[in-house]
Amino acid sequence: MSCKVRFAPSPTGRLHVGNVRTALINWLFAKGQGGQFVLRIDDTDLERSTKEYEDGIKQDLTWLGLEWDDTFKQSERFAEYDKATAKLKADGLLYACYETAEELDRKRKIALSRGRPPVYDRAGLNLTDDEKAKLEAEGRKPHWRFKLSGKPCEWVDLVRGPQAIDTASISDPVLIRADGSYLYTLPSVVDDIDAEITHVVRGEDHVTNSGAQIEIFRALGGKTPQMAHTPLLIGADGQGLSKRLGSLSVQQLAADGVEAIAIASLLAKIGTSDPVELKDSLQTLASEFSFEKIGRAPARFDEKELMALNAEITRGLSFEDVKDRLAALPLGDKANDAFWALVSENLQKVDDAAIWLPIFFGDIDKADLEADDAAFIAGAAAYLPEGEISEDTWSVWTGALKSETGRKGKGLFMPLRLALTGQAHGPQMNQVLALLGREKVLKRLG
C-alpha cells in the first residue's frame, strides 16, 4: 500500500524553519515512496486563524517546492467531528467535567504536594445527573474528557523504536472545551481516519500525546497510522529557536535572498547520518531519505551552514540565471557577464551584488585613509602603465610602486583596494582593475 502523510499547520502565523523541517520530512518520505502528501489546514481556532496566514503558508510551501496532492480545512469539517463526539459519548468514552481552571490547578498542586503524579481524578465520571444539573444551573459549562483505558499503549516508532505510554500515568485528555470548541486531538484523529493517512510524522514533543490518540483511533474504529517522532530543532548554540523564529520564517529567508534548495538541503540532512551537502533537487533528497538515518539527538540549525550552501548555489548561477534579479537592484540594469563572473565568487546571496554594482557602474565615497596611505595613493596614478588596462596591469603597476616606495604586502595592496573599491575584501584586484577601466581608476586615485 502506498503511503499517505499530512502536514497540518495552523494558519496563525507564517512557516518557520522548525515546522518547515516537519513538512519537508513528510514530503521527502512520501515522494521517496511514491506516496501522497496532504496539506491539512488546522483552523479550528476561528479567532486566531486567518485567510492571510493560510495563503502565506501555501505560498511558502509552493516556493520551497513542497507541492501537495490534496488539501482541506478543518473548519469545513465540524459536522464530522460532531459525529465522532456523539459516538464517543454513546460508548461512554467521552464524559463531562465541570471544574474551573483554578480548581484543576489546585488539584494538581495538592497531588504534587502529596508525592502523587498530577493526574486528573475523574471526578466528572462520578457526578450524578442531579449534580450535573445543579452545576449547570450555577452557570457552569462542561468540558469533555476522553476516558483512557489505563493500560500501556505500545507502538514501534519509525525513529524512536519501540515505545510504550502507560495511559494510567496521564490525565484523560480534554477533547472539547467548555465553550464547545474542539482541541487539536479529536479533529486530528478524525481527519487522519477519513483521509486514510498511513503515517503520522511529527516532532518528538507529541510522543506522549500519541498514547491517547492511538486509543481514540481504536475507539472510533479507525486504523492507527504508523508513527515517526523526530527530534526537535535547536540553534547552533544548543539553545531553542523560539526567540529567533521571526527572522527564520520562510518569508523572511526568501526576502533575504536565500535559495529554496539551500534551505531544503540543510533541513533534510541535519540530525541525520548523512553529511550536509548541497543537492540539486528535492527529488534527489527524497531518493536519499530514510527514517533510519535520523538520530535521536536534537538537530542543530546553523545559519552559517545555510549561508555556505547558499553561497555554493550563487557561485553556480550564470548571468542569465540572475539577470532579472540584478536588474531589480540599483544600477543592476548595467550589470553584464563580466561583472557577474567577477563578483559571484564573493557573494553569499545574489542580492549581495548590490554592494558591488556602484563600485563598477557608479560612484563610491572617497576612502578614509591614514595620512601616509593617502599620500601613497595620491602618487600611485603616476606609475599606472599607459594604454588599455588588462588583467596584467595590476602586477606591473604594483611592481613599479613596490620598487619606488618600498611598500609590500598588505601595506602596498590594501590602500589600493580601499581607494578603488571602498572594500577591504573582494575579488582579485587584477580582475577588478580591468573591469573598472582607466577612467574610473584615475578618478578614484585623484
Keyphrases for this structure?
3-stranded antiparallel beta sheet; elongated; Glu/Gln-tRNA-synth; 19 helices; 3-stranded parallel beta sheet; 446 residues; ligase; Arc Repressor Mutant, subunit A; alpha/beta
Descriptive account of the structure:
The chain is an alpha/beta fold and 446 residues long. Among the domains are: 319-361, no CATH class; 371-445, Arc Repressor Mutant, subunit A (Orthogonal Bundle), CATH 1.10.10. It contains 19 helices and twelve strands. The chain has helices at residues 17-32, 51-64, 78-90, 101-113, 129-137, 185-194, 207-219, 250-255, 260-269, 282-288, 303-315, 319-327, 337-343, 357-361, 371-380, 393-405, 410-421, 429-436, 438-445, and strands at 4-7, 36-41, 70-73, 94-97, 143-146, 152-157, 161-166, 174-176, 199-203, 226-230, 233-235, 299-301. The strands form five sheets. A three-stranded parallel beta sheet has the order 1-2-3. Strands 4-5-8 form a three-stranded antiparallel beta sheet. A two-stranded antiparallel ribbon has the order 6-7. Helix 1 (17-32) links the parallel strand 1 (4-7) and strand 2. Helix 1 packs across helix 10 (282-288), helix 9 crosses helix 11 (303-315) and helix 15 (371-380) crosses helix 17 (410-421). The protein starts with a strand and ends with a helix.
Radius of gyration (CA) equals 31 Å
Report on the biggest sheet.
3 strands, parallel
Distance between the termini: 75 Å
Tally of DSSP β-strands: 12
* Bulk shape: elongated
What's the total helix number?
19
